[in-house]
Design goal:
Structural class: alpha/beta
Largest sheet: 8 strands, parallel, barrel
CATH topology of the largest domain: TIM Barrel
Strand content: 5-15%
Strand order of the largest sheet: 1-2-3-4-5-6-7-8
Order of helices and strands: EHHEHEHEHEHEHEHEHHHHHH
Shape: globular
Low-confidence stretches: 1-6
CATH superfamily of the largest domain: Aldolase class I
Number of domains: 2
CATH class of the largest domain: Alpha Beta
Helix content: 40-55%
Mean pLDDT: 92
CATH architecture of the largest domain: Alpha-Beta Barrel
Length: 344
Amino acid sequence: MSKTEYPERSRIYDVTLRDGNHALRHSLSLDLVRDYCQIANVSSVDYIEIGHGNGLGASSALVGFSRQSDLALLSTARENLPDKLLAVHCIPGFATISKDVSPAIDIGVDVFRIASHVTEADTTAKHIDYVRSNNLEAMGVLMMSHMASLARLVEESLKLESYGATAVILMDSAGHYTPNDVRQRLGTVLEHVGVEVGFHAHNNLGCGIANSLAARSVGASILDGASMGLGAGSGNAQLECLIAVLSREETFDYGTLDEFFLMSELIEKEASAFLPRVTSSSLMSANSGVFSGYAPMVRELALEYSIRQEALWRELGARSIIAGQESMIREVAIEQASKSNLVE
């Protein structure tokens, strides 16, 4: 990797207090938000994303109720981030403009990531337009980005750009990519769009850092990470590791690593029971191409119905189950248990 390839310093997008809320089963406390943001505010992180694991307005019986409201989480973060950009994840359908986006703007959110399944960028148009009309940054996000062909991936990325998105973010929601996948897919998108491209890694194959570096090598300028890797499935690219590597690979100054160590130590202390790791279950989800956040539910249902996790993951992948289809997992588990009983 040549340092001369990079036109600018990688911008670091910290998802610890949003994607990490998946790992915490949406129990993120205001005290942790306050303490973490106070440290992050003096670090070289550029964006701090806060909220329910599924973003604004997502707290529900379907995907899990949040311990704290969006208003409380964002207000606490804003108070403790005077020098950093406060960001939110926003999936149209969960989040409405009047109920969720407008109040978030009033609180002082600087950046909105408007997200959709990789083949459904059309659903983001109104939200992106509203955010941009308020002179704020709106990044377009394609979740489960491995589930589209290269041609379709480019098509959906161009849609986001046409709606006014200031950047296109590809999410490896299932932790399915290898570095070669990342270079091919991000490289192709970068050849066609005229806005910045970013990458959000999951570590289900143990490739979170390698995939982030692969994204950077083809020109991605926004990289996501989480302290201690705290996130859905096997977690995200581990933030402190990412910064340590980038500090050696790039000519740009990321400053001292001390703040990143303090952030990771705080997460290690306060979320020790929830820290992610690569498990057989998360590896199965990656190979099946299924949203890594489903791992706890798949484990529980496999035990409840006495079926093999691997078989359940494989069937979910065959049915192209995506985030937001939690109810389908139980249906598939019941079907598999019924078939198993018939065989017996």
